[in-house]
Amino acid sequence: MNLSTSIENIKGIGPVFQRRLKKFGIKTIQDLFFHFPRRYEDFSNLIPISKLKINEVCTLQGKITYIKTSRSWKKRIYITEAIIEDKTGAIKAIWFNQPYLTKTLRADDSVFLSGKVTISKNGAYLSNPIYEKGDFSLDLTHTGRLIPVYPETVGLSSRWIRYILKPLLINLENQIKETLPEELLKEFDLMPIKKALWEVHFPSSLELSQKAQKRFSFEELFYIELFVLRERNRLNKEKSVSLPIKLEIIQDFVKSLPFKLTDAQKKSSWRILKDLERPRPMNRLLEGDVGSGKTVVAAMAALNTIKHGYQTAFMVPTEILSKQHFQEIAKLFSDFRINIGLLTGKQDQFRSKKLKNQVIEISRAKLLKKTLEGEIDILIGTHALIQDKVKFGKLGLVVLDEQHRFGVEQRAKLCRSHNMVPHLLSMTATPIPRTLALTVYGDLDLSLIDELPKGRKKIITKTVKPNQRKETYEFIRQEVEKGRQVFVICPRIEGNNKNEELSEAKMSWAKVKAVKDEYEKLNKEIFPDLKIGMLHGKMTPKEKENIMSAFGRSAVGGRDRIDILVSTSVVEVGIDVPNATVMMIEGSERFGLAQLHQFRGRVGRGEHQSYCLLFTDSSSSKTHQRLNALIKSENGFALAEKDLEIRGPGDFSGTRQWGIPDLMMSSLKDISLVEKTRESAKQILIQDPQLKNFPQLREKLDRFRQRIHLE
Ligand code: ADP
Ligand code: MG
Q: For 107-124, how does the pLDDT look when each residue is reduced to its tens digit (9 = 90+)?
């Protein structure tokens, strides 16, 4: 047995538990060791029974003198009652719904019990205490000490994890090798890995557990920095085709636009075009709030690339968006002779310059052939673009829209069959706090579009309480009667089965509005005379597309036009329907600020006054603090910082997208730690660019890279 032994080969972990562990990405013993607790419960307070105090969390040790499970006839639940005795006295313990307990715990057993002392009319008792059999407090796992509490899922308790983990850690601790260079451990006073693993899972004190966590945070940050810096070094050596600015064509393009570019658009376009001129790959992130007009900027870069005879790949996150970008880019390029391809799940399309810009359907095979032959100037699509089958003949530029990941990886895939590396332009409307940007995008040059096109009206944002629902529906009706359209966002797709018995956690979830229920309600009861549409992630791409195009038909009274679209968060990014003026969000406290800001950006895109209505029945002050921040601020970047501050990094919306593990998120708040790790990573790479003297580090880094690949 070693660290990479699969959990399937561990005694005590059957197929069911294997599946549950895999939910957390745990496949090997090593993964299990690095599955860290979320918090600790302090049961170290071991006291004699006579000294127990009501409402105090404590641990006692004694002998079971009586234990029995019975079933209450009223509620039909199992109740296990026991009496525990030590030299100083006796106390009752009660467990609910654990009928098998009497198989483990019997009279005469010595046990440790940890829990809270509760009082009822029949006296004091321990309610649902955690138990552990034994006489000696030295090697306790579940009681009598600081015990780790892990992120849990149904059927995977912290108790079980502790039970499996501890013997493995004892058996394999000698195989755990230090991964960080000795100098770093010394310089930053970091705990060695073996000790840190013990202290993080079974801490001897809270301080030591924190010190252990700091070590792992440092390490994670350090890998990210190393990874990013190495990528950067590597790219600096790569060659890319130089694409000098074709000034006349660019000027023609700008003239052909129905609007004037903002200064911020001009500035970032210029930077991008300058990047394209260099014989080294561009690696730039364009950050701009929703609606700030990033597409035109990207189009300009594509045009310049195409006019040099090179192709552009344009990757977007969803099918709907790929279709919309296809149309938008076709429109922007209508005066220019350019072949545009759309590669989607089901129905590929092609707009040919020979066919007078007519859009036709095309078979996948044909589209791929044209792409390989370099005949497609710009190919738009989702992740489908990085399948093995898609090969470009002369790829010059890759645009990634709203792909908050390590763009380098996508690029690596896109240019597999080339000896030249294409230029990369990443775009995002998700504002990224400074510490994050420094870390995750450390290898990118950054351009900001920090102003919106002129003439945009401020979106009126308000919270709506449950008792204002009726008047809000009335308001929505007025907007529709004026010819406008409305989004209704719900946090989830399905309602719950009315007959289902619900656990507490499910109960609170059950109150959350579901798209299907809201759709039914609005369609049948509230607005039977209006046309309501529904959109969610479980629909097929074709269904989604039909709905979006019916919603996009914004001419007043257009046939089959959808007035109100009830949707999940799939409308989050990029959808552009200038005629929509109301964004109504159910259960708004369920969403992150950055995400709410994105929803809000779906309206206010046309000439009409727009509204963002935040429904909530939460009375938590934190919720209102957050929603107020949204009401006050229109600046996505400021909101992201705020979200990080109020909700804490663990909840920060979108961190998953960056592939950053939860535990580490807290360390991102610590900018000085980020800077330290960055500096250390730089030093190491200067000394030893290939990490020849750090085999452990190299191996860890490879694993880290794989993980990023997978996410
Ligand atoms: P995002 O940055 O969110 O991707 P888009 O590129 O989709 O924004 O642009 C949003 C809308 O604004 C589009 O309809 C686009 O045509 C329009 N637009 C872009 N730039 C300008 C501008 N300078 N003036 C007016 N409208 C603009
Ligand atoms: Mg966009």
A: 999 999 998 899 888 888
Reported residue count of the chain is: 711
Answer yes or no: is the C-beta of 295 below 6 A from any ligand 1 atom: yes
CA 491 – CA 269 distance, rounded (Å): 37
Give 182's contacts (C-beta < 8 A, 6+ positions apart): none
CA separation for the pair 612, 592 (Å, rounded): 15
Average pLDDT along the chain: 83
Q: In this structure, which residues have their CB less than 5 angstroms from ion ligand 2?
A: 574
CA of 498 to the centre of ligand 2 (A): 40
For residue 371, what pLDDT is reported?
93
The first and second tokens of residue 332, run together, are 């922007």
pLDDT of 601 strictly over 80: yes
Nearest to 583 by CA among 554, 615, 548, 612: 612
- Give the ligand 1 atom nearest the CA of 401: 4
d(CA 460, CA 190): 50
CA 255 from centroid of its chain's CA atoms: 40
pLDDT at 484 over 60: yes
Sign of CA dihedral 361, 367, 373, 379: positive
Single out the residue of 120, 64, 701, 658 nearest to residue 403, CA to CA: 658
Residue-wise over 329-363: b if at least 16 C-beta within 10 A, else e? bbebbeebebbbbbbbeeebbbbbeeeebeeeebe
Strands 39-42 and 146-149: antiparallel
What are 140-155's pLDDT values in tens digits? Answer: 888 878 888 887 777 7
Considering only CA atoms, which residue is closest to atom 24 of ligand 1? 453
Q: With a 6 A CB cut-off, is 304 part of the ligand 1 pocket? A: no
Share of the chain above pLDDT 90, in %: 34
Mutate which of 292, 295, 316, 571 for ligand 1? The one with the most ligand atoms within 8 Å of its CB, which is: 295
Q: Take residue 644 and report the two structure tokens written for it.
A: 């990080």
* Pocket mutation for ligand 1, best pick of 259, 399, 554 (most atoms within 8 Å of C-beta): 259
Read off the pLDDT band of 677 (50, 70, 90). confident
Interval 247-270: pLDDT, tens: 999 999 999 999 999 999 999 999
Picking from 450, 451, 446, 424, the residue whose alpha carbon sits closest to that of residue 434 is: 446
Per DSSP, helices labelled H in 553-614 are: 593-600
Cα–Cα dist 213/613, whole Å: 41
